[in-house]
Amino acid sequence: MAGDIGQEPLKIIKTILLLALPVVIENFFQMILGFVDTLFVSKLGLIEVSSVGVTNAILAIYLAIFMAIGISANVYVAKYSGAGNDEKVKEVTAQAIILALLSGIIFGLITLFLSDELLKLMGVEEEVLSSANSYFRIIAIPSIFISLMFVLSSVLRGKGDTKSPMKISIFINLLNIVLDYVLIFGFFLIPAFGLEGAAYATLFSRLVGSFWLVIDLRREGLIEWRMSLWRINKKVQLEMISLSSPAAAERLAMRLGQVLYFGFIVSIGTNTFAAHQIAGNIEVFAYMIGYGFATAATILVSKNFGSGKHDEANMYAKYSLWIGTVIMSFFGLLLFLGAEWLGSFFTHDPGVLKDIKIALQIDAFIQPVLAIVLILTGVYQGAENTKYPFYLTLAGMWLIRTGGVYVLGMTLGMGIAGIWLAIGLDNLYRAIFLIKNFKNGKWMKERSVPADDPAVS
């Protein structure tokens, strides 16, 4: 076989790790710094914490759209980069930026005119509404910077550069923490702005990040100010929307499903919900690993499809899957052995701590399955096949997970054990079907463009 398929396994592993680890590190820093950010806001009071929480719940819907556009940009930039078509890479970059700008403006206008209504839909109480509305408008009216951050970072990753987005993300998160402290509590001649200060800190950090990413893209030669590139290309736009729509729908299905089964968990009991939330916060670190290897798989699969090397794409997919699964399985072992110790960082309530231990020890066995779901979803996206993971997520989240929480957690009275068994069954169902289609080759879409395809030239 030609190309990279003949290279040594260690070289393949190194290639995957060089792409995956910066994404894992970036996500890790975002989590740690996010905790610090939340800590500052918590010093202001419960109303402020509630305001941030409800705003983030609405922003999760915005982010689902922006992340999906980022997936399209990542896939097509990697694909045409692999084909050696620099002109097409520049065109896709320009069209992705246009789509990011348009989506950012649309969601900004939605926030400008409907912020009150959106917050009331979330069930915000009167005493929280004013504070939440002020924070939400400062954060989300300039949604253009959120969309640009996602899409510009994805373009760089598609080109194979995962280090630059990592460095920029770490810097702006550190900047956000410094600005949080100064603008929330005041410093020297600068007055304290309270919750609005936290919003302005986030906005300024995103502004800096967006401009830095543009500079990096310009330096890499991915952005050129030629009118021919910046005219709206309907064909490219439709291709990107077609690829991103199922990915966006998948994330929205997850979010909406979470809202429903969270309601079931709350009805079981406050302590059970608290234990579930804490266990979920601990498990997030596993997701960072999975998303890192999923990103590497998406880039390498797209790039090799672009150059017509389907065997190499398949090889990189397999190696990414095995490496990520082994690492997440090891993380699962740590969860099983350290469940109670990890829970003790969040609470000393014996009942809640017991539930956290049960949840994490069940979750330990879910980790290899979760790795398969996350990484193979990235593989499918690299092959421009976003519909199949969406269908599986829709059925898994709404039937198996939500139904499982209701039956096992509530009806059969299994509590926290029933909840996490339902989560495991959902992931197992998706993993089985993703692997089945992966093994029989149905994950590869026929429209993946080989290097000598005239459409690429």
Automatic annotation (TrEMBL):
Mode of membrane association: Multi-pass membrane protein
Domain of life: Bacteria
Subcellular location: Cell membrane
GO molecular function, one term: antiporter activity
Keyword Plastid found: no
Keyword field: Antiport, Cell membrane, Ion transport, Membrane, Transmembrane, Transmembrane helix, Transport
Stored CDD domains: MATE_NorM_like (cd13137)
Coiled coil feature spans: none
Chief site of localization: membrane
GO CC term (a single one): plasma membrane
GO biological process, one term: monoatomic ion transport
Family of this protein: Belongs to the multi antimicrobial extrusion (MATE) (TC 2.A.66.1) family.
Protein name (Swiss-Prot/TrEMBL): Probable multidrug resistance protein NorM
Organism, as annotated: Cytobacillus oceanisediminis
Highest classification ranks of the organism: Bacteria, Bacillati, Bacillota, Bacilli, Bacillales
